From TrEMBL:
The keyword Phosphoprotein does not apply. GO terms for molecular function: hydrolase activity. Keywords: Hydrolase. InterPro entries: Metallo-B-lactamas, RibonucZ/Hydroxyglut_hydro, WalJ/YycJ-like. It holds the Pfam family Lactamase_B_2. SMART domains: Lactamase_B (SM00849). SUPFAM superfamilies: Metallo-hydrolase/oxidoreductase. It comes from Coraliomargarita sinensis. Residues 13-176 form the Metallo-beta-lactamase domain. The keyword Thylakoid does not apply. This is MBL fold metallo-hydrolase. It comes from the Bacteria.
Amino acid sequence: MSVSFRILGSSSSGNCALLQTAHTKVLLDAGFSAKRIEQMLESIGESIDSIDAVFLTHEHGDHAQGLRGLAKRSDLPVYANRDTADAVQAKYCRKRVNWQHFQTGTAFPFRDLRVRSFRLPHDAFDPVGFTFSWGEEGDLFARPGSLAWITDLGYVPAHVREHIREVDTLVIEANYDEELLERDERRPWSIKQRIRGRHGHLSNSATYEALEAILPQSRLQKVYLGHLSKDCNNVALVQEKFAGLGDKLSVEVVDPEIGTSPAMLKQAI
């Protein structure tokens, strides 16, 4: 079974990725306008009409604004917990979204995917991360693999570390460089405190320290570092910070302006 993954875009301005298995294509978040998401998909030979579902982490615009336009597809299921769905419906959508509610912390199937949600420490109504897994041990045609989508969080609590340990591929934020944030003159002190807080975002150092602690007892093979701030971080700084992990696993920094090239996940998955 061929499974591919591509981050269409990831930064403080917008986040969206495409996960494709033999039997389904799903978007992880919809943090760009619907028109922009359609253009991104068309640029890689895909169509919004081929998307089977959207999985939504929380209601902030850089993860959810695309629902304003995507809601016109009444047959497109959008998976979110109830608090997130209510917030997005009220803020962005005139048309009723085809909401598929789940309870945070539960697991459920979607076609050939097994999905698990878990709470993240972030300043939203009920923000979540997801793990997606597929395939079966011993099946030559559907070999197992897994991915975690963990974007916005102020720190990495124990239960999140456990979810990371269980997957092959991880997407996690490296949002800001501490010195660049401190020197930034456009953000008031209150915003800086929010970003640095336990319900804000992860700095480069915080993400590095978490991964360094998790790696020895994990099955991680690939890490994507995303959600970079365009003002308080850059690709070169993140690459330099995480160079020391390169001999332990594959690390890719997601350029805020580009996204990633297609990746075949875990064997000819």
